[in-house]
C-alpha cells in the first residue's frame, strides 16, 4: 500500500515564526489530505490536493502538492499558539496517514 | 447537526477479554472507517464500510472485526485482547463523493488493556 513519511517529527517554534512540515512518498500519490489534531482531540480535516503542482491557501496556511505528486508540504506563516497540534498528511481513499509533525508554539 | 459519536469514551479491559466499540456517523454519511491510534503515531487504518459492505481492510489480525448496520452505524469488535491493543480507536464517517471525501472523526474510544 501507499506509504507516506513526514518530517520533522517534532518542531518547536517561537510565536510569530514560520513552520513547515513535509510529506514524502516513493510512489505517485492520487491525492493528499491534511488533518490537524489538537492535543487530546481528534483529527480535523483541513484540505485536499489532487492536481500536480497544486497550491491552496487558508489564511496563514499554504498547502502544496509536488509536480511529481510524490510530496506535499504545509506551511504556516507567523505561527500562533492556536496552531499547536499534530499535523498529519493522508493519502489514498483515506487509508494511509503519515507519521505526523507535532508543533509546539512558544509564546 | 450532531457529529460522529462514539461510545464508550473510555474502557478498561483485561488481556484475553473482548470488546465492542460503537460509532454513529453524521446523518447522510454512508461510509464509516475505523482507525487505531497509538500515542505519538498517526491513525492506522483498520476497516472501511460502505452501505454495509466491507470496502477495505488494513493490516490487522483476524481478532479485529467490524460490521455496519442498516442505519449506517457501526461496531468494531476485538477478541482476545492483548496489551498492544491499548490505543485510541477512532471512527470516521465521510459523505458520498468517492476518492477524497473528507473524513469526519469522532472523539474516539480510549481502550486500555491491562
How would you summarize this macromolecular structure in one to three sentences?
Chain A has 107 residues and is an all-beta fold. Chain A contains no helices and 11 strands.
Question: Top keywords for this entry?
Answer:
heterodimer; A: 107 residues; mainly beta; Immunoglobulin-like; 6-stranded mixed beta sheet; 5-stranded antiparallel beta sheet; 11 strands; 52% strand; B: 114 residues; 7-stranded mixed beta sheet; 4-stranded antiparallel beta sheet; globular
Task: Give me the Rg of chain B, rounded.
Answer: 13 Å
Number of DSSP helical runs of chain B? 0
- Residue share in β-strands of chain A: over 45%
Rg of chain A, alpha carbons: 13 Å
Structure annotation, total helices of chain A: 0
Overall geometry of chain A comes to globular
The CATH topology name of chain B reads Immunoglobulin-like
**CATH-derived topology of chain A:** Immunoglobulin-like
Number of strands of chain B: 11
Task: Characterize the biggest β-sheet of chain B.
Answer: 7 strands, mixed
Number of DSSP-assigned strands of chain A: 11
Oligomer: heterodimer
- Class from helix and strand fractions of chain B: mainly beta
Unreliable runs of chain A: none
| Secondary-structure content class of chain A | mainly beta
Reading the helices and strands of chain A in chain order gives: EEEEEEEEEEE
How would you explain this protein's 3D organization?
The complex is a heterodimer of chains A (107) and B (114). Chain A is built from no helices and 11 strands. With 107 residues, chain A is mainly beta. Chain A is globular and about 40 Å long. The termini of chain A are far apart. The model of chain B has no long low-confidence stretch (mean pLDDT 94). Classes of the chains: A mainly beta (107), B mainly beta (114). Chains A and B meet through strand 5 and strand 10 of A and strand 5, strand 9 and strand 10 of B.
Amino acid at each position: 500500500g501507499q506509504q507516506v513519511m513526514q518530517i520533522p517529527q517534532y518542531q518547536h517554534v517561537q510565536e510569530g515564526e514560520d513552520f513547515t512540515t513535509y510529506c514524502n512518498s516513493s510512489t505517485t500519490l492520487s491525492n493528499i489530505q491534511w488533518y490537524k489534531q489538537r492535543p487530546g482531540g481528534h483529527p480535523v480535516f483541513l484540505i485536499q490536493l489532487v492536481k500536480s503542482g497544486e497550491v491552496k491557501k487558508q489564511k496563514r496556511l499554504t498547502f502544496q502538492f509536488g509536480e511529481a505528486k510524490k510530496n506535499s508540504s504545509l506551511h504556516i506563516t507567523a505561527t500562533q499558539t492556536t496552531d499547536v497540534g499534530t499535523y498529519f498528511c493522508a493519502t489514498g481513499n483515506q487509508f494511509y496517514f503519515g507519521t505526523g509533525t507535532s508543533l509546539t508554539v512558544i509564546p | 447537526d450532531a457529529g460522529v459519536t462514539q461510545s464508550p469514551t473510555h474502557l478498561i479491559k483485561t488481556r484475553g477479554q473482548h470488546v465492542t466499540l460503537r460509532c454513529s456517523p453524521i446523518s447522510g454519511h454512508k461510509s464509516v472507517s475505523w482507525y487505531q491510534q497509538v500515542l505519538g503515531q498517526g491513525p492506522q487504518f483498520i476497516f472501511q464500510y460502505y452501505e454495509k459492505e466491507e470496502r477495505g481492510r488494513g493490516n490487522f489480525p483476524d481478532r479485529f472485526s467490524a460490521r455496519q448496520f442498516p442505519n449506517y452505524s457501526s461496531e468494531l469488535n476485538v477478541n482476545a485482547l492483548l496489551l498492544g491493543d491499548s490505543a485510541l480507536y477512532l471512527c470516521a464517517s465521510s459523505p458520498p463523493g468517492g476518492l477524497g471525501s473528507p473524513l469526519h472523526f469522532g472523539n474516539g474510544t480510549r481502550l486500555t488493556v491491562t
